[in-house]
Amino acid sequence: MFSGNWKEADGRLTISPDINPDSFIFLLRYAAGEKKQELDDESVWTVLQVADMYQVEALIEACFRFLLVGHGRCDEARHLCVVLELTHRLHRPTWRRRCLRLISTRKAAKVLGSKSCLKELCRECMLALVQAEDMHVDDEVLVLKAVWTWAMQACRKNRQVKVRRSELRESAGDLVYHVRYLSIPRRQLTNLLRFDAGPCLLTG
Q1: Is the same domain home to 38 and 97?
Q2: Which residues form the domain of 55?
């Protein structure tokens, strides 16, 4: 388990510089049975990184539990988006479902209405949120606006300063097919679906 990310220097075994030393010591103590060590808002990120690197499953679980329940920002929308992305990247489906449910049932409107939150989400996570059957939003237009805003940000990540409508629609892709259009009043929907409506829907 501890065969990687080490190097020898002057006959001594040292930790690779890309590993946080304090977090590595935390992991060693945890593996030795010191389960009562306390995570905090700052250290949990690097502890999780090291725990994932060495696949210490119990510590990974403890980190995600802390991020969703014990962290000082666990009730903030952007924090939940960051954690959702982590669960996706680290292939933790159980924690991903829990985090997605927290967002969809408690923070959906804040996430969908915030550029900074949407910026944290990859396509897969954005799609999962838009598809969530238990998502609580008062106005489905917010979902549609969020889709176009996310698509614009995705284009700009690729360094496209000026985004064409065709590029914006390609970026949005199948996200637009999961908006619940029938819950939007007909007249409002007609205006929203005009040929040039997409760019006008951008959040913020």
Answers
A1: no
A2: 19-74
Cα angle value 93/42/12 (rounded, 5°) = 95
Q: Cα angle vertex 188, ends 176, 128, to 5°?
A: 25
Give the burial string for 157-176 (b: 16+ CB within 10 Å, else e): eeeeeebeeebbeebbeebb
Residue 5 located in a structural domain: no
Q: Are residues 169 and 91 part of one domain? A: yes
Q: How confident is the model at residue 8 (pLDDT cuts 50, 70, 90)?
A: very low
Dump pLDDT digits (tens) for 19-48.
888 999 999 999 888 877 899 999 999 999
How many Cα atoms occupy the beta-carbon half-sphere of 161 within 13 Å? 0
Q: What is the CA radius of gyration of the chain?
A: 21
How many separate domains does the chain show? 2
Q: What is the DSSP letter of 176?
A: G
The pLDDT score that the predictor gives to residue 19 is 84
37 and 121 in a common domain: no
Higher per-residue confidence, 121 vs 198? 121
- pTM of the prediction? 0.83
